[in-house]
Amino acid sequence: MVLSIGTIGAATLVAACGNGGPGGGDEYTLRFNHVLAESEPFHEGFENWAQAVEERTDGGLTIEVYPAAELGVEEDIIEQIQGGANIGQNTDAARLGQYVEELAVVNGPYFVDNLEEVESLADSETLQTHLEALEEEGLKVISFNWVQTHRHFFTNREINTPEDLNGLRIRTPGAPIWQESVRALGAEPVAMDFGEVYSGLQQGAIDGAELVYANIPAGSLQEVTDHATETGHILLINFEVVSAEWFDSLPQDYQQALVEEADRAGMETSQTMEDQVADIRQELADAGMTINEDPDVEAFREAGDAAYERLGLTEVRDQIWQEIGKG
After folding, report:
1. Could you name the domain of life of the organism this protein comes from (predicted)?
2. Which residues contact 238 (CB under 8 A, 6 or more apart)?
3. Which of 39, 83, 111, 213 fits as disulfide partner to 280, beta carbons 3.0 to 4.6 Å?
4. What is the model's pTM?
């Protein structure tokens, strides 16, 4: 897979002579930002990626990883990346869809079902075309092999079908693909930051949230919700983004190291998170949460089509599916 993560502006490159590494002597630094805590598997994965790149380039390219949005808000960071800053950001297709609308399709309902299908996206000419369009906006995707498992519904009532969500206010991020996905699946979407979900549930501002399993103990949300419904409606793919200007300024072997090591670390981290789901599920069940492992997923899949239709993404979804042999 040849894609991209991280950013650095040519004007802000950290360059020094005499390194002797494969890049020809110059040293480069990428400051990489993400919103997750240091305890999250993604943070360890990013650190592993940084170590592998530094070793492979003999110290010529180093990545400094900043957790918990230490460098700033995601949207602001992306703007800095566009301007050529030496910053990278872990983000999602919903946000990138604000620059190239078609990319939002990746965060649509049931777009992909497993890690094998995520890897196969590298073979989609249609997706590559949209990633090239994103580069024209100054943003280069280095990897999208970073997957935070499936999203499910967490509520205080039993859910089996889309009709059971009617009238429920469900927290989701504010981007159109998220909002329309939740609406298509039967609920009323409410845009809310993750940090506000606990109090929102506690105070009745929302009736539930759609999240990955790892989010629940991380936010102590088992204290304010008692039902998990395993719809698996979105497999949460993350994109690692850097400045296109900076990436092009790197020696070719540094570019290759950055991409290949991001893909490798991403898939390893994604599998680690997938392996942890069973333990988290059991932990929540032991705490008293009711786990519905058998809702009417086919009904949810069928309902999810409306999100693509409302956003005009059905055609691009079908084209990508054809190219990766899905559907």
Report:
1. Bacteria
2. 42, 90, 91, 92, 144, 146, 147, 148
3. 213
4. 0.89
